[in-house]
Amino acid sequence: MKDYIIDITLSSTKKQKPQSDQLGFGRVFTDHMFMMDYTEGKGWHDPRIVPYQPITLDPAAMVFHYGQSVFEGLKSYLTKDERILLFRPERNMQRLNLSNDRLCIPQIDEKLVLAALKQLITIDRDWIPTAEGTSLYIRPFIISTEPYLGVSPSKSYRFMIILSPVGSYYKEGIHPVKIAVESEFVRAVLGGTGTAKTAGNYASSLKAQEEASEKGYSQVLWLDGLEKKYIEEVGSMNVFFKINGEVITPALNGSILEGVTRNSIIQLLEHWDIPVVERKISIDEIYQAYSNNLLEEAFGTGTAAVISPIGEFFWRDEKLVINNGQTGQLSKKLYDTLTGIQNGTEPDPFGWVVEVK
Ligand code: COI
To answer: In this model, does residue 37 exceed pLDDT 80?
Structure first.
């Protein structure tokens, strides 16, 4: 691989690390971060690793006003024999560039960013937690920085990568979550930004999320933006249903996020010869399957959440309790296998894992 020159300034102090068994999600950050800048006419420049620190931006920086911002989420693991592993990182870099394209942000050099990420993790390797269910969450992101109030693509950007040792995303951990079906608000519409990982998608999801949480539900199940009939995603995850022995997940339709975990689960199921289909699926069909006792399991998939079993849906004042609110066998097997591949304790027949050397 080409050698990239990345300037490195090490921190003179080291922060205290949290206890591995007391980690939540995304509140603690490591000692260093990666940055590079984009200027029109010059391209991306000055890739550098620096001590983790606040950044200064002009109050007119366009990201504050028009939300031109994209991000990714991936994870790193430390094996028992001290090897550092990443899970399918090239997919995240590709998706970052797809999001960039949708948000009119200049393309990044995926190989440079991956090389920088590897250096950053190597420097902060002591931060990778090892307790079961923990990992080092990696958040690459890009913001527009030009100080300008006109609505147009910014002429300058900053790319950053920050690292956070994490435990489980939901307080429930691997235990089933309760989900409210959202019938008023929508997450995305065809032609919108649903397939991009951009900040605005998450800002617009908060209202529904808050209302669901007041009723005791962890997340919402999003329906399509046109007919509010077809299932799209759940909270910040893709969603799968096991109905009468077959696993179904909504087909990528232009408004659903193309999850790396989603793709990995489909491949795992195919590998095990378990029938799996990507297709349009309506909430009515789920209800029918439930009424006929055919809805066996449901689970969300995502980098942050991994596999999150769903124990209950709330729809039209009715509770649909799945598998007695318990984690299903398939969800558990998928969780164990996927996390095993990710942390190096299970064989990786797909060549998904990349070692940081
Ligand atoms: C991830 O799964 O990495 C995500 O980006 C979801 C996030 C919004 C927590």
So the answer is: yes
- For 12, residues 6+ apart whose C-beta sits below 8 A from its C-beta are 51
Query: Rounded distance, CA 138 to CA 271, Å?
Result: 28
Cβ partners under 8 Å of residue 219, min gap 6: 177, 179, 180, 209, 212, 234, 235, 236, 237, 300
pLDDT, average across residues 279-293: 97
What pLDDT shows up at residue 22? Answer: 83
| Token pair of 200 as six digits | 């605005």
Q: Among 72, 166, 236, name the best residue to mutate to test ligand 1's pocket (greatest count of ligand atoms within 8 A of Cβ).
A: 236
Nearest CA to ligand 1 atom 8: 236
Report the candidate in 199, 197, 126, 202 with the shortest Cα–Cα distance to residue 165.
126
Ligand 1 centre distance from Cα of residue 293 (Å) = 32
Rounded to two decimals, the pTM is 0.96
Task: Note the CATH architecture for domain 177-343.
Answer: Alpha-Beta Barrel (3.20)
Distance 259 CA to ligand 1 centre (A): 10
Arch. (CATH architecture) of 7-166: 2-Layer Sandwich (3.30)
235: CA distance to ligand 1 center in Å? Answer: 10
Distance, in Å, from the CA atom of 298 to the CA atom of 281, rounded to the nearest integer, reads 13
